[in-house]
Write a structure and sequence with these properties.
It is built from nine helices and four strands; from the N terminus they run βαβαββααααααα. It is an alpha+beta fold and about 220 residues long. The chain folds into two domains: about 80 residues, Glutaredoxin; about 110 residues, Glutathione S-transferase Yfyf (Class Pi), Chain A, domain 2. A hairpin with a 2-residue loop joins strand 3 and strand 4. It starts with a strand and ends in an 11-residue tail after the last helix.
Length: about 220
Amino acid sequence: MLKLVIGNKNYSSWSMRPWLALRANDIPFEEVFIPLYTDQADKDRILAVSRGGKVPALVDGDVTVWDSLSIIEYLAEKFPQAKLWPEDRVRRAHARSISAEMHSGFMPLRNECGMNLHRPIGAVALSDDARANVARVQEIWADCFNRYGSDGPFLFGALGGADAMFAPVVHRFLTYAIEVKGDARHYFEAMQANAAFRQWTREGLAETIRIARFETV
């Protein structure tokens, strides 16, 4: 069986992505939790799986894949029936483009609105760059709804790889009371209603571990 090594659900947006892709598409896997930023023993446990020293990491027999987007690509190839990427070539290119944009960009939003499910809901003053990130995310969501909304509630119809990449942003918008407007709300609400998303949220809220460096106000 596949093993997915993840960090704290409260904080680890990167871990959430492949976890959601697996759980929402009923792909069996064993979850291996290693707390982040604790002691050398836990660091060594991560290094024993991935020499990059970071989570998530997917272990499939003698194959190890690290980095959330690489894991999703691997899963898409191993489980084509899950249709993690759209079958249509043009839609697939679109899905991969916005996934790569999320993977490599939006640093002001990430830095100013860190993922922390335990944080009391409340707005913070955002920089111009972070506000531009917020606008761009909502532009992506609204554009996908207008193009593909008739095929289902997620970015390209059914929940797939692109949705897994954007799911943590839904948490950020909720936690920091960021208003989601217009057609972008369709996706925002659909993700919150998804059973796998809700499971991650429940389990993250149940965690008692606190990491000082991530406890923003």
